[in-house]
Each structure stands twice: as structure tokens, then as C-alpha cells.
């Protein structure tokens, strides 16, 4: 198990995003709007339209590339590239021309029944994708320095006739030098409101479910605790976006254990040892 990644700040917010074919009323600029409901939508499902370039304005170290709130189907693939120049002739990262599955394997064969449609693939069935804030997530093998990034989405049979997304997140990482203490918690928070009539019938005002992750880091090197953890808390506060990857090595559960979120509270650094500190984090998923 690898140590968790907390990615911040989001370099996409100050970037220039161009390319492809996107509807004038739902432009690529919406990917820089924190409201996931303000989507960017392509003009068609053709790959000529469902792609875009990101100019970060300067070379930046990137480990996390995430496109959040997608309608991309279970058969779609993508290609991600990073380059030192806008023409993509000096490529420093390429996920592969053959394309990477947007939806990775999330079930082992022994966790599904033989009769299940997705027994052979181990991926989510189409009906399981519906109604959730899903993410096209690429965790780069190492932090890669590049100014320009290009994403191409291959989903030509999308029944909607377009590809859309609500948020773009590109960032480096803080991966602490110590792993999580035992007792970390991944929870679901359901804000659905329930009213009960006098006769006993219950009525539900259904709200989206968000993920919450609580974890504690112990005996961090003091320099790591102050220059990284403390600075992320100071700059992000409880209002700015962060991206959490609980275990970057766990490819099967990664999509369930990674999400766009915010720090729910700013925990104090605890000076437990002469040169080592501890602190806790609670990250709440951003869903709206």
C-alpha cells in the first residue's frame, strides 16, 4: 500500500484551455468553474470535438490529471500527453496511442457472479455509472514537468451525442513520508431529507451522496509537516479544492478511493516527538 496523495493547488484554474469543438453556451472555460453543474459540452461525440489542450503558462510538475463530473460511457478510452511545447513535438509523457480505458477494472472475478454482464471485464456496468460524480483520473507514475497537456477522449458511440465534464484538475502532489495510522475511515454521507406522514408513510427528498475520508499521519518529519502539510492547510483552507488519492498503487479500488474534495477542518500540528509531528485530515467530496 502506497502512502496517500493530496494534490494541491489546481493548476488548471489559471490555465488556458483550447481545442476540439465545444458548444458556445457550454465552453471549455466551464471546466475552471468550481460548480460541477456548469459543464463544458462538446459539439459532437467525434474525437475531433472531444479533445482539448491545456497551457499552464509555465512548466509545472504534474502528478494528477482529473476530469470530474463526466458523462463518458463504459466503453470509452482516452489518451493523455504532456509536452514542453505547444506543438507536442517535445512530448515528456504519453499514456499511449492505443488509448487507456476511462473506466478501469473495479471488480475481481470472484466478487461477481458468472451471470453478470461485466464478469469478463470487471468494470462497472452501464447502470452502475449513472447518477454519480465520476472522474476520468490519471495518476502519472512520477511527477512530470510540462507546460502543455492534451487530452483526447474516444467515445464516438456515446448515446448523448456529446461528451461533457464539470471540472478539470491538474496538480502536483504531496505524498507524505509516512503512511496513514491504523483506523482511517472512508465513509458515505447521505444528506437525503426524510419526512414521515401521520400515517407512517415516509417521503424522501433525495440528495447526492458524498464520500468522506478521515485519516491520521503520525511521526512526520518536521520539515515535511510544516513545509507541505501546514502549507496546504494554510493555502487551501476549508474552501479550496484538493484532490485525494488514498492509495495510488491500488488500481482496482482507485476510482472508489479517489475524489475531488475540500478539507473539512484544519487540524493542529501535534509536536509529539522532538523532530516529528502528527496531524489528522478529514476530506469531504465536492459533488455540486
TrEMBL record:
<protein>
    <recommendedName>
        <fullName>Discoidin domain-containing protein</fullName>
    </recommendedName>
</protein>
